[in-house]
Predict the 3D structure of the following.
Amino acid sequence: MSSCEARKGFLTLSGCDNPAVTVCSQCQRSMCPAHLAPQTGFSMCFDCAATSSNVQEEEYDDVWSHRYRNSYYATTGYMPMDRSHDSSFDRQDALSFDERQRDAAEDEVERGGFGES
Amino acid sequence: MSVVQTWRSLNAEQKRILLDKRLEVTRPIDELLALLKPLAACDARADQSRTRLGCSFGLALVLTVAALIAWGNDVPFAMATALVLLAAAIALGYFYFWTKRIDVSNNFRQFALPVLSVFREDIDAAPPVRLKLDLGSPTAASKKQSEKAPYSMGVYHKVIESTYLDPWMSAEAVLVDGTKLSWQVTDSIRELQKTKRNPGGKYKTKTKYTKKTDLEVRLGIRKKTYDVTAPAGAEVTSGAKRNVVVMERQIRSATLDPIDPRALIDLIAGVYRNARRARKEAGA
């Protein structure tokens, strides 16, 4: 099966890319287990569960988070940047990613510095 | 599940956090939420039970006194009834004060946890999140900054004005896009204790609060990832690899209730609204 088609995030959106195990019974998108709502017996993705009035949320679980996200985008007009939208990675992107990993290692050494790491 | 069952399901670290009302941890976001969510569940159950326990405790005390009076008047079975009621009052009182002891500030369930849950997928899963929370009372003696000499005002013959400073939340995280995010929440509280004597000669004291919440957000945004224009009121400094955006906001309220988590989410989202994909990446 293809990779999971869930859109992750709040400030920015990105793909999940985990291997999908099933399709959402509502939207028919391929989903990995992590993006299926347990409240629906793992049959619906969180996006669909969030829009369904039949699905109960627990305090601050993923259904709640997705409902909050939907409501926030709708009421504020916030449009998150889709980080995987143009996923045509080239050599420059790969170099940038390598650099980010190097930065992360430096950050580990020099925790708390904001400006130059 | 009752509050006692929920408490028993917590591990030693979680119980310690509720008793100390303090938390200072550095761990990945999913582990952090796994630590915090059961605490929130326990706090919610304790809040629900406390009112019921308090009312039952008060009623049991009143009935115990009534039974003791009846015992003094040789009413049949009054002694046994009084002893049963006394035992019930002791048990209810114990549980009432125990739920008060494990009670944490509503800032935890109504602000800290929603914010972390909303940003869970934005926060990089591997680098640990640093989180510091003080969930004790914002008007604890240790947070008192000043107390003015009592003065009179209108019908109130004694007014005591105190101020408190409660820097109750700070957090630092690395986001999936490489942005370094940190924020701090500090409450400054003014307490007015006003005492008057009513026509019947009784003294009555009212306490009023005004709270100013300072939110400070810092985002270290990678220049290779985003071009940033400063949102209104923000301060942007340019480093070698990152633009650092600092934003502040003050919220005033007339109660000690938690502020809406959206205030912080708006501040952070406001920076992203003003960010564009860096030209190097956009052109890729």
In short: Chain B touches chain A at residues 37, 40-41, 44, 109, 113-114, 117-122, 127, 172, 174-178, 180, 182, 218, 220, 222, 224-225, 237, 239-242, 244, 262, 265-266, 268-269, 272-273, 275, 277, 280-281, 284 (CB under 8 Å). The longest helix of chain B spans residues 29-72.
